[in-house]
Amino acid sequence: MDKKIIFAGGGTAGHVEPALAVANWLRSKRPNWNLVFVGTKSGLENQLVPKEGFEVLHIPKVLMPRQITPAILLWPFKILFASWKAIKICKGADLVIGFGGYACPPIYLAAAVLRKPIFIHEANAVPGWANRLGAPFAEQIFIAFNRATNKFGRWRDAKLTGMPIRTEIISSGEKSNEEKAKDRNRQIEKWDLSLDKPTVLVFGGSQGSRHINEAILQSLSVFTEKGVQVVHSVGKNNPLPTSTKNYLPLSYIDDMATAYQASDLIIARSGALTCAELAAVGKFAILIPLPIGNGEQAANALDLQAAGAAEVIEDSKFNADWLISNWDEIWRKAKGFKPSIKQEFSASEAIGKSILLKLEN
After folding, report:
1. What count of Cα atoms within 13 Å lies in the side-chain half-sphere of residue 205?
2. Quick one: residue 57, left, alpha or beta (phi over 0 = left, psi -120 to 50 = alpha)?
3. What pLDDT score does 65 carry?
């Protein structure tokens, strides 16, 4: 019998990409199943999900108040309205799986009211509030970082699977050195950059980072002096700077697998998805944790830092002066880096098999 599964999660690539990885695995095994995504009208899921051939349904975006303001009085009514919308979506579902983000709280509440089975995947080392809300109702919780189990209640029983990431990212990390070199050269030529210069890839997450963008732009003259070229994903909502012979600004990079292989050093935020992808492709990085939420990005970077795979710098200390003054030492580390992190990259399969076990037995 065909099944219907609701995938909840959105806002950023860090929530959407893991959901897509699991959905694609399930579709390859059960092509007749109805796999439906739920997000908000403003999230990145509206670009990423349709590209993969899945339907996206919308519910209202409800922000969790982080300060005591008059707006907090409206929050219960907003979450109830969004949950009422979610109930309509979840009525015919056989299972709901959430990956965090704005769409998850109403979906978890709706599924709980309807007594639908709930699975949760937590991408960060420190669980976010949406998944913490859903945890008491969940039959099974999957985590990407072992330290996320250092919690009470349902989190103690969570299953460590790692992060579901795209198959092309995994495949790129498993290629031979010769294949990686060919991929690198093809992409460098596609970018119209020099094959003889080291390449730095910069991105601040799917939304970009103005703070990182400013530091890079202010450092460009030094990079040029040192013979380094920069590929810079500035974010779709940020203005696109002028390109030069050694600097290629882009609004967004769709093919991250090849972009990683074409790069000699990464400068990025330490979102859970980024950290998992860096481990998969074996690239050295400068990581600047985003100083919001529960400190999850700082926690995400710990494994890479401990393995010598990353230089971690606080957001408040990262600027052009820091980057220029520390560049020679960081570049020395990047050139001498040998990937040593051993990680199980079958998260999509592990979660997918748990779903099959639940719905077919």
Report:
1. 22
2. beta
3. 65
pLDDT tens column, 83-125: 999 999 999 999 999 999 889 999 999 999 999 999 999 999 8
Mean pLDDT, rounded, for 221-243: 92
pLDDT score recorded for residue 62? 81
CATH of 4-165+345-360, one of 3.40.50.2000, 3.40.50.1820, 1.20.1250.20, 3.40.910.10: 3.40.50.2000
Has domain 167-336 been given CATH number 3.30.360.10?
no
CA 327 – CA 310 distance, rounded (Å): 13
57: Cβ contacts below 8 Å, ≥ 6 apart: 36, 37, 38, 39, 89
Alpha carbon of residue 190 to chain centroid: 25
Would the CATH topology of 4-165+345-360 be identical to that of 167-336? Answer: yes
Instruction: Locate 232 and state its tokens.
Output: 């810079």
Show me where the domains of the chain are located. 4-165+345-360, 167-336
- Exposed/middle/buried for 22, CB within 10 Å: 0-12, 13-18, 19+? buried
Model confidence pLDDT, tens digit, residues 19-75:
999 999 999 999 999 999 999 998 889 989 999 999 999 999 887 666 677 777 777
**What does the radius of gyration of the chain's CA atoms come to, in whole angstroms?**
21
Residue 203, both tokens:
């991105």
Q: How far is CA 26 from the centre of its chain?
A: 20
* Helices marked H in the chain: 13-29, 45-51, 75-90, 104-114, 129-134, 167-174, 177-190, 210-225, 256-261, 272-281, 296-300, 302-306, 320-336, 347-360
Where is average pLDDT lowest: 172-176, 231-235, 249-253?
172-176
Q: What's the CA gap between 117 and 158, in Å, rounded? A: 16
